[in-house]
């Protein structure tokens, strides 16, 4: 209680700082963006009216243009944090260029004095390789709409995840909009205009921020500054689009249709005046392949999504600006069937509703200081529906109703002067969790009290008690769990002494509620000294949920710019507290319920604890001329209480788990080629080793390996290369992706222990054998005739790399998904009829050009079985104004 009162006092103190200082400057951009403002004069000191101003970052692709007003004044608002190249041109004068570094919300002021063309003196600064570099110790990737607008994205329903996966190094693709970042699963957080979102944003947990609402992304791939906490393996800083000063209005209307009956439509508009603005985006999607199914053939995978985003900016005074972000997204989708579940007409579905409201107030204290006060309220409502006929659900039936409500606020104080860029702040948030879960058995062989002489379970529902086995000519099943018999929907007669009472043959029902409190204080400073940049910071995190944790977290880094060779060397370190996943946290932390233990296996002795991590990075940037930059790092991460998820019966229901510790390491990198006569390209790559160590210290029981093992985040190598070319500046364009994944660690695949013992394949159904692409010589399984055994010399798979006989090792040689090469392409024209004011656009996209049949994962304890997207065609038509 004392800690919370102290934190509230700090929030109030920051909130009152503006009373101590008079405002002397204009209001700034809020959230994760800054402002560049200035004046242009001629040699006589008179204002230049109508001068063309351009602000450009060649690596991120950001490009903005404006012109000076009748006072010679110009202003760029909502500028993502980055270095930029500012250019000024006006007829009769020499062009003027200057590098501008936007690193905080504190306004950057520029004074431009033009020189008459032909005069001897010149102050023009020529662009060179230095413009491609950032003297920053923290590895990160900057992506602007100018770049990702032409990037072929695999998933329409998880476009934000696809964008991050394709454009960021060290990120491995996973199914259903998930991705493994730097060897972790979902240990990611979003900062949307400074609103922290540390809960999962994949399409089976929550609804993502629509890509149409995003202006730019900065993806921090490790050792983040002290302002970021919670889940820090990947921090995605998003700056949304704004309509501030946008007159006349601009916007677009788009419509698309493609394979699997996928139809999408969207509308956005940005409009505003000198002191206000509004950006509105509305969109919808209907698809026959909403989630990635466990079969390459798509059936029972329909879904739809509708989203609304609105950002309002209002400059109340020269010193005060208000911003409101409002959002709502609803998605509805079927749980994809396998051939096994389709055979019994399984019909499971889910619906997710996401609400978000985030107001922000920015106050200019003086030319060097800025105060930001922000609040936020976000709610995810997830409902999972079993089949109307419970017995149509394969093996078990399950339902869930889950709510997650996150409310809180943050205060940030920024001060920029001389060599220092200081930011200090406080964050307080509460997350209210409500979970309802239902479960019942639908297959009489799953928990049969009797087995035959060969050990096969007997599916006779009339057998309800082990005492009946002998008289029926069977043997008692040693694995029979009487307590689970209480929730066997196929049996109606109570078992002897099972303790079911009136609960027999009814669904098990779980209800839980929790209040998770998180707070933090932080201070950080970026100090520039010549070619050196020193980043120092300290964060204190306080976690009070079903488990407790407190951590002092030093953060620091050093970067050195060798200007002669256009090289930046950097190292960084962060100590972090990793907060437990909130999704299904209550059920996963229930250590006393015997039914939960019976369903999922032995649970841990305590609720899922917070994780503690030491995160080290070392790397460099190297520019070659003006058109190529290489950015590479090596990461070491050591985590106590390392997290993952356990999939419930290959459904969209997941439960968090924690292992004793993990060691993650490997190189990552990005190669960027900015625009060169219409041609631009980038390549991102990574090779991350993810070794986890037992025992399991939190969450529900799993069937994963014991000892040291490679978790399914581990992948030897992945890369994405994107190339795009545009004829002139407004002509047709083409974009092309080459994606390669060497293969994640696979799940329970049968393998040979030696060269003489046949491989037993009876543990897999015929459908599962077909999914894995198993074969025995020339024999392949069918739904009617599965494989049973196979000689090791004849055994293999077309979709999984199975270790040679006697070589399987959970740490050094586990089964893996087979390597895959995937190719995507998009062609289009952004101005079909070459009209300046009203433009028509057309776009045609092909995903998986070669129609490669490949898996994301197979029978993974942590995510199930899913196939990559088959070849998909999409055509889009747009109108822009």
DSSP E strands, number: 48
In round numbers, the mean pLDDT is 89
Question: What is the helix tally?
Answer: 8
Q: Percent range for helical residues? A: under 10%
**Structure class:** mainly beta
Beta percentage is over 45%
Main β-sheet, in a few words? Answer: 22 strands, antiparallel, barrel
Determine Rg (CA atoms, Å): 29 Å
Write the layout of secondary structure elements.
Elements lengths: L1 H14 L17 E9 L10 E5 L6 E5 L5 E8 L1 E8 L6 E7 L5 E6 L26 E5 H4 L10 H9 L3 E3 L5 E3 L2 E2 L2 E5 L2 E3 L16 E7 L13 E7 L9 E9 L3 E11 L3 E12 L15 E13 L4 E15 L4 H4 L6 E18 L2 E17 L10 E22 L2 E22 L8 E2 L23 E2 L5 H4 L22 E22 L2 E13 L3 E15 L4 E12 L6 H4 L5 H7 L10 E14 L3 E20 L6 E23 L2 E21 L8 E3 L4 E12 L6 E9 L17 E2 L5 H7 L1 E3 L12 E2 L4 E3 L2 E2 L14 E2 L2 E10 L9 E9 L7 E6 L3 E4 L4 E9 L1
Parallel strand pairs: 1-7, 12-15
Antiparallel strand pairs: 1-4, 2-3, 2-5, 5-6, 8-14, 9-10, 10-11, 12-13, 14-15, 16-17, 16-48, 17-18, 18-19, 19-20, 20-21, 21-22, 22-23, 23-24, 24-27, 25-26, 27-28, 28-29, 29-30, 30-31, 31-32, 32-33, 33-34, 34-35, 34-36, 36-37, 37-44, 38-40, 39-41, 42-43, 44-45, 45-48, 46-47
Q: Can you give a write-up of this model?
A:
The structure is a single chain. The longest helix has 14 residues. The chain is mainly β and 881 residues long. β21 and β22 form a beta hairpin. It has 8 helices and 48 strands. About 3% of the residues have low confidence. It is 6% helix and 50% strand. It has a 22-stranded antiparallel β-barrel.
């Amino acid at each position: 209680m004392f800690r919370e009162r102290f934190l509230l006092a700090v929030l109030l103190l920051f909130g009152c700082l503006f009373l101590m200082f008079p405002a002397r400057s204009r209001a700034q951009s809020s959230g994760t963006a800054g402002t560049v403002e200035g004046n242009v004069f001629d040699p006589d000191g008179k204002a230049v009216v109508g001068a063309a101003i351009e602000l450009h970052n060649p690596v991120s692709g950001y490009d903005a243009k404006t012109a000076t007003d009748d006072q010679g004044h110009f202003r760029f608002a909502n500028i993502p944090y980055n270095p930029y190249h500012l250019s000024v041109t006006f007829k009769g004068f020499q062009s003027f260029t200057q590098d501008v570094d936007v690193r905080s919300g504190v306004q950057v002021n520029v004074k431009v004095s033009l020189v008459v063309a032909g005069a001897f003196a010149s102050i023009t600064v020529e662009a060179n390789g230095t413009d491609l570099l950032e003297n920053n110790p923290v590895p990160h990737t900057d992506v602007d709409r100018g770049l990702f607008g032409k990037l072929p994205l695999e998933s329409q329903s998880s476009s934000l995840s696809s964008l991050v996966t394709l454009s960021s190094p060290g990120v491995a693709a996973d199914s259903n909009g998930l991705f493994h970042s730097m060897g972790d699963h979902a240990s990611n957080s979003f900062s949307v205009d400074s609103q922290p979102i540390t809960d999962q944003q994949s399409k089976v947990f929550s609804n993502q921020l629509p890509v149409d609402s995003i202006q730019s992304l900065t993806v921090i791939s490790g050792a983040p500054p002290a302002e970021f906490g919670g889940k820090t393996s990947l921090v995605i800083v998003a700056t949304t689009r704004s309509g501030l000063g946008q007159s006349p209005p601009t916007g677009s209307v788009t419509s698309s249709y493609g394979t699997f009956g996928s139809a999408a439509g969207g509308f956005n508009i940005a409009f505003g005046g000198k002191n206000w603005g509004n950006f509105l985006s509305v969109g919808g999607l209907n698809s026959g392949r909403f989630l990635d199914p466990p079969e390459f053939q798509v059936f029972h995978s329909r879904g739809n999504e509708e989203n609304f985003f609105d950002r309002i900016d209002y400059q109340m005074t020269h010193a005060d600006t208000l911003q409101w972000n409002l959002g709502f997204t609803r998605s509805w989708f079927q749980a994809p069937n396998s051939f096994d579940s389709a055979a019994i007409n399984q019909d499971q579905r889910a619906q997710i509703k996401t609400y978000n409201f985030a107001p922000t107030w920015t106050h200019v204290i003086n030319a060097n200081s800025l105060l930001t006060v922000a609040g936020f309220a976000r709610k995810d409502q997830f409902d999972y529906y079993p089949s109307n006929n419970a017995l149509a659900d394969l093996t078990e039936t399950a339902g869930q109703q889950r709510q997650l409500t996150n409310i809180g606020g943050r205060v940030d104080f920024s001060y920029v002067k001389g060599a220092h860029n200081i930011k200090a702040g406080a964050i307080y948030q509460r997350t209210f969790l409500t979970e309802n879960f239902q479960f019942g058995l639908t297959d009489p062989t799953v928990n049969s009290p009797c087995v035959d002489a060969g050990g096969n379970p007997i599916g006779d529902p009339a057998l309800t008690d082990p005492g009946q086995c002998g008289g029926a000519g069977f043997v008692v099943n040693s694995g029979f769990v009487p307590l689970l018999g209480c929730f066997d929907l196929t049996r109606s007669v109570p078992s002897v002494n099972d303790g079911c009472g009136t609960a027999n043959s009814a669904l098990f029902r779980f209800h839980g509620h929790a209040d998770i409190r998180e707070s933090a204080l932080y201070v950080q400073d970026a100090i520039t000294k010549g070619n050196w940049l020193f980043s120092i910071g300290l964060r204190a995190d306080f976690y009070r949920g079903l488990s407790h944790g407190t951590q002092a977290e030093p953060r620091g880094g050093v970067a050195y710019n060798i200007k002669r060779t256009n090289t930046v060397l950097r190292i960084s370190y962060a100590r972090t507290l990793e907060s437990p996943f909130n999704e299904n946290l209550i059920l996963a932390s229930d250590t006393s319920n015997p039914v939960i233990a019976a369903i999922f296996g032995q649970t841990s002795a305590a609720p899922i604890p917070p994780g503690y991590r030491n995160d080290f990075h070392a790397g460099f940037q190297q520019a070659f001329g003006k058109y190529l930059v290489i950015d590479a790092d090596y990461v070491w991460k050591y985590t106590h209480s390392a997290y993952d998820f356990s999939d419930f019966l290959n459904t969209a229901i997941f439960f968090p788990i924690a292992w004793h510790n993990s060691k993650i390491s490997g190189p990552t990198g990005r190669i960027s080629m900015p625009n060169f006569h219409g041609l631009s390209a980038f390549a991102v790559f990574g090779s991350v080793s993810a070794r986890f160590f037992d025992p399991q210290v939190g969450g529900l029981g799993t069937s994963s390996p014991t000892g040291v093992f490679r978790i399914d985040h581990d992948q030897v190598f992945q890369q994405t290369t994107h190339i795009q070319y545009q004829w002139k500046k407004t002509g047709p364009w083409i974009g092309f992706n080459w994606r390669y994944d060497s293969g994640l660690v696979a799940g329970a695949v049968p393998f040979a222990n030696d060269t003489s013992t046949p491989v037993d394949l009876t543990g897999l159904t015929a459908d599962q054998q077909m999914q894995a692409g198993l074969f025995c010589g020339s024999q392949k399984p069918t739904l009617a005739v599965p494989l049973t055994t196979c000689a090791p010399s004849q055994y293999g798979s077309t979709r999984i790399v199975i270790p040679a006989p006697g070589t399987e090792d959970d740490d050094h040689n586990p089964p893996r998904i087979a390597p895959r090469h995937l190719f995507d392409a998009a062609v289009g024209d952004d101005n079909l009829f070459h009209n300046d004011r009203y433009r028509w656009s057309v776009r045609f996209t092909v995903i998986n050009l070669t129609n490669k049949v490949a898996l994301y994962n197979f029978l993974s304890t942590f995510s199930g079985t899913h196939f990559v997207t088959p070849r998909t065609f999409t055509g889009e038509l747009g109108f822009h104004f």
